[in-house]
Design brief:
By secondary structure, this protein is an alpha/beta fold. The protein has eleven helices and 21 strands. Bound molecules: ligand IDC.
């Protein structure tokens, strides 16, 4: 330090510190100068920004330009980062964000009540790092999907009438506390040949015409076309888009919709827990403002999987969903292909609010002994939701047992238990509700339905 005075050294240190902070901010500044990958587009309503990876910017800043809620550039809101002696803030015209999140160049920032960027801190369940960028949630799982705004539902529809559902005792009730029974139809594997084309708005509308108020989306995990199957060539983005489309059809029609993580071959839900964590973080963030979305976290645990395995999984996934959505209905599968609801009462999940447990039945295989499990579970205070059933055998095929099916129907209706029929497909198997000779993807007449399809339709119709 020869030749440098103490005073010079202090000035030099201060300058260096200042320079570093400028460099730090210009990390996002560099992006602000044009590194968010995408293209500007113009149509009759104005300029908008398409991301390289698909989708377009809305309600966020890209390179200093504000794209409004519809995705159009609002020049008067052009914004930029500012710094004063207290800290960083963001200015757009005379406005600056206070006590709110703001998305700038694809990152989320939080500003305090005075408008300063919050750094190195928890904001609710979200952590912002030294640069003020949201990097993680309490569960350690971070989702970057855009949270959608609350939709509106058509008048007269189930969702308009009942709103955000809740669990009271063993019952599913409406926002205002009235007992409700959801009556649903499950899709086939969402991208499987015999079912994929039936995921369209007209098809859901046909089902709604029967009295169906719930659609279940079977998102297989390990099977072909499964979310966790990496060797089938099916992209996760394709599966996500199918889910997004299906949820939008159900929403437009005012129907409830279950996003079903359809474990089956993978027996134990912990097999793909890493993927499940991310999946539910993403879906629950996207649909946090949707009163009509329910989450089924594991279709059918089976094989050697015990209730304590499932509970461990559920106690991991439920808090992740709750970080985004504090009250959506969460459905938890049970061991033995979702039959052992009677094992829950002595050891339920930790966060019990608005959680129900899942039973499945196939009437020709599952008879009085399984109905007894349902009764004893309910008697012990366990809320049960039937997210899959059919009048045939457990392999989805074989012949229909009407007398067993009628017993189930009576027990379920008498107790206003919600149910979902398997499945919206025209595969040549008994449980498919559309005849294999029928290639229509909506508007089916009774003669185009299979026997199990007509049985389900009449049940939903209240006959
Ligand atoms: C079945 C389909 C069948 C398909 C099979 C794949 O109906 O076409 O080949 O999956 O493993 C369930 C499962 C559900 C099954 C259904 C009928 O949740 O995925 O669908 N079933 O076997 N549990 C009991 C029966």
């Amino acid at each position: 330090m020869k030749g440098i005075s103490r005073k010079q050294l202090i000035v030099w240190l201060l300058m260096t510190a200042l320079l570093f902070s400028v460099i730090r901010m210009s990390d996002s500044g560099a992006e602000a100068a044009g590194t968010v990958a995408g293209t500007w587009k113009q149509d009759s309503k104005g300029w908008w920004f398409r991301f390289k990876n698909g989708g377009y910017a809305k309600d966020e800043y890209i390179n200093g330009y504000y794209l409004d809620k519809k995705g159009y550039w609002q020049k008067k809101w052009n914004g930029s980062w500012k710094k004063d002696k207290t800290g960083w803030w963001f200015k757009a015209g005379k406005w600056y964000p206070k006590k709110q999140w703001l998305r700038v160049d694809r990152k989320y920032y939080y500003f305090n009540a005075k408008g300063y960027l919050v750094t190195n801190a928890w904001v609710g369940n979200y952590y912002v790092n030294k640069d003020g960028v949201w990097t993680k949630t309490r569960s350690g799982v971070t989702s970057n999907v855009t949270k959608l705004k609350a939709p509106s539902y058509p008048s007269g529809s189930a969702v308009k009438k009942w709103g955000a559902l809740q669990v009271k005792g063993t019952d599913l009730v409406s926002a205002s506390g009235a007992k409700v029974q959801l009556k649903g139809v499950s899709t086939f594997g969402i991208i499987w040949d015999e079912g994929r084309a039936n995921i369209n708005k007209e098809a859901f509308s046909t089902l709604k015409g029967w009295g169906t108020n719930l659609i279940r989306l079977a998102v297989y995990t390990e099977e072909y076309g499964g979310y966790c199957n990496t060797s089938d060539g099916v992209q996760t983005s394709t599966l996500n888009q199918t889910i997004y489309d299906a949820v939008s059809y159900a929403t437009d029609l005012g129907m409830y919709v279950i996003i079903d993580w359809h474990i089956l071959k993978d027996g134990n839900p912990n097999t793909h827990i890493a993927e499940a964590k991310q999946f539910f973080a993403d879906m629950s963030r996207k649909y946090a403002n949707y009163d009509n979305v329910l989450y089924e976290i594991c279709n059918e645990p089976n094989g050697s999987t015990t209730w304590s395995d499932v509970k461990k999984y559920a106690d991991t996934i439920i808090p992740i969903i709750r970080e985004n959505d504090p009250d959506a209905i969460i459905l938890v599968g049970t061991p033995t292909w979702s039959q052992d609801v009677d094992q829950v009462a002595s050891n339920p999940v930790k966060q019990k609010k608005n959680v129900m447990y899942v039973m499945h039945f196939y009437a020709a295989t599952h008879k009085e002994w399984l109905r007894d499990k349902l009764k004893s579970a309910r008697a012990a205070g366990t809320p049960v939701f039937i997210t899959e059933c059919s009048s045939c055998s457990a392999d989805g095929n074989g012949s229909i047992d009407y007398s067993s099916a009628n017993e189930w129907k009576k027990l379920i209706n008498d107790n206003k238990i919600s149910f979902v029929g398997w499945s919206l497909s025209n595969k040549n198997e008994t449980s498919a509700i559309i005849r294999s000779s029928c290639s229509k993807h909506s508007g089916w007449s009774d003669s185009e339905l299979t026997d199990s399809g007509r049985y389900l339709k009449q049940w939903i119709q209240g006959k």
